[in-house]
Amino acid sequence: NYIIRLNKGEEILETISALCEKENIKAGFVTGLGAANDIEIGIFDTVKKEYFKRSYKGDYEIAALVGNISRQNGAPYLHFHITIGNPQTEKYAAGHLSKCVISATGEIYLTAVDADVDREMSEEIGLNLMKFYITSGDGKMAKIAVLLPKEFMKEQAEKVIKRNNFNIHSLKVIQSVDAIAEARDAVTNGADIIVSRGYQAKLIQENTNIPVAEMKVSVQDVGLLINKAKALTNKEEPKIAVVSFRNMMEDISCFSELFNIQLYVHYMNDFEDIEDILKELIEEEIDVVLEGKQ
């Protein structure tokens, strides 16, 4: 693991890429924050198969920086997303990061992962997609079982698996009450790793010794939902609550200032907690509740 402080004038992508080259980091993920004054953010146009980019100059807080590290043709490949904002100018933006020059300081945590993750151009999509080489403890190719709570998630996963030619052991939609039994059954039938999310992932982790790769909700997605929720209220500083299991969420504590809202975050340990949480939210006269449990 690495804790990185970037100084004024340093560019995030260049600095992290150089570190990965020096330390031979082949895969990993980052999270960070800070302040910047020269940022370029983009969004991928799926029709034209290219990025639309926009530059932002001036003082901006980096409310959230998240991303992953892999390799392409042996060189470090960084895929970062960023959320920036300035409460004084009321300008906010989020998207794919192409450039970010630090204006005061940058604070980044980097976790290296012992894995080989390559990148390969997809002519269908127009992006360099991940290409996995996942192995188990004995060095053999690991078998992955994907357990999901919703049919639409399964359909999305099937498209990704087909497009990338992933070797998946099994893919199922399951009920939360069956999560532990389904995970144990998958391992009995040869799976080495379980991919799951939300309450189901929590149950499997707490009641088994099976390795679980969790699917979290991105900070960017939460930010977009909060922006929509705020628009529904027609209030300058609405009260918005987020209710979720802790293992589904990244840190969004900065969103109160970033979106000019009163943010209330409640984490559930079990579905039985919902009733008590809703009572508290009613007493607080919350305008909108965003709930994530799967």
Structure report:
- There is one protein chain.
- The chain has 294 residues and is of the alpha/beta class.
- Helices cover 26% and strands 45% of the residues.
- It is built from seven helices and 14 strands.
- Strands 1, 2, 3, 4 and 5 form a five-stranded antiparallel β-sheet that branches. A four-stranded parallel β-sheet has the order 9-8-10-11, with helices on both faces. Strands 13-12-14 form a three-stranded parallel β-sheet, sandwiched between helices.
- The two termini are 29 Å apart.
Give a brief description:
The chain is α/β, with parallel strands linked by helices and 294 residues long. It has seven helices and 14 strands.
Topology diagram in text:
Blueprint: E1 2-7, H1 12-23, E2 28-45, E3 50-72, E4 75-86, E5 91-112, E6 116-122, E7 127-133, E8 144-148, H2 151-164, E9 168-173, H3 179-188, E10 193-196, H4 198-207, E11 212-214, H5 219-233, E12 239-245, H6 255-259, E13 262-268, H7 273-283, E14 288-292
Parallel strand pairs: 8-9, 8-10, 10-11, 12-13, 12-14
Antiparallel strand pairs: 1-5, 2-3, 2-5, 3-4, 4-5, 6-7
